[in-house]
Structure prediction request, 439 residues.
Amino acid sequence: MTARKARTIAPAEGRLGVLLPGLGAVATTFVAGVELVRRGLGKPIGSLTQLGHIRLGPRTEGRQPRIHEFVPLATLDQLTFGAWDPIPDDAYESARQAGVLEARDLEPIADFLHALQPMPAVFDPQYVSRIQGTNVRRARTKRDLAEGLRDDIRRFRAEHDCHRMVMIWCASTEAYLQPTPAHQTLAAFEKAMEESDPAIAPSMLYAWASIMEGVPFANGAPNLTVDIPALQQLARDRAVPIAGKDFKTGQTLMKTIIAPGLKARMLGLRGWFSTNILGNRDGAVLDDPANFRTKEESKLGVLEYILQPGLHRDLYGEVYHKVRINYYPPRGDNKEGWDNLDIFGWLGYAMQIKVDFLCRDSILAAPIVLDLALFLDLAQRAHLGGVQEWLSFYFKSPMTAPELYPEHDLFIQQMKLKNTLRHLMGEEQITHLGLEYYE
Prediction:
């Protein structure tokens, strides 16, 4: 078998700054978790970069190193954190208010968390109406706000001696926006910023500032953000990796596990009803219909792309798919998702599947933030600019090239991710055909 040439990847030297718009439940759970792991007080469960293995070559060779041993990723000790948030609480107080981690995990690292103070955020209640904050940046135009974010990035880089940086959006879901002419070209986008056009949401200002500063950007919410031609072109022109959108946790994670199984067995589906109860800050935001619509659009597309009703009309041509999210304060971050599936099998006989997933939203999201930070940094050092479709594994609504449909099947996404890593390192891609026995 002919050896492939590995891609040139710059070494992971020095500090990697991880910038987080939003210092709420997800961000504080991520930051606290990394510090606990660094101090030997916890394990990075759920992180593919830290615990996952990757098979190399034929099965007969038995080569299955850990991913972080195979690919030159930054180590956890190299990470340093910065954040913006409209609420001025430091990371300790924010984590305590979020109620995700217990005191037994927060108190040993209280000094570290107190030191993480959020920078004033670019925030507008027009896009997130259920949050009020005093730690907010003011400026004459949205362009000025975005330039202020660029100043923040430069200052953080200098103060913390960062060799490289990434930015991961961990803030709330914004109100639903449709693409407009302001999103189509960079010139139109920057003109809209200067005119403070309502089509330019705060998350877009963070993304623009990040790309302009050469900092890879990932969108962890279902906002439009970088899923527009103007910013995607800017990312390609500047060779900056971008990824999104909406962290795949909870109910949608289960859909991308179960739906491929139904399709693999050619079992039919008549309806899939999903409802959630959630009580954290995200739940409060999504209680607003305008913000829920953004999330709903992200959730509803999953089944159609996995099941391909155009190809399998008899099985999936008339699926009734309903999604609901209900704000229920007593539940806090411990989201509960109920799913009812009406399926059918041989000769059309009806069956049902019931799923009750009592999950912890931020516990599922934190390792995603870590993996995205490390993989986006890898992509930057490997000179991979623009949309990183190989990171679809982590998102509910994966971004793709304009001419492609998004791949939602979790197992195909994982194969794509691992094959990309093999390609970068000059290893043969794995097809599972078993041809090594017939060569």
In short: The chain has two domains: 15-247+363-424, 250-358. DSSP finds 16 helices and ten strands in the chain.
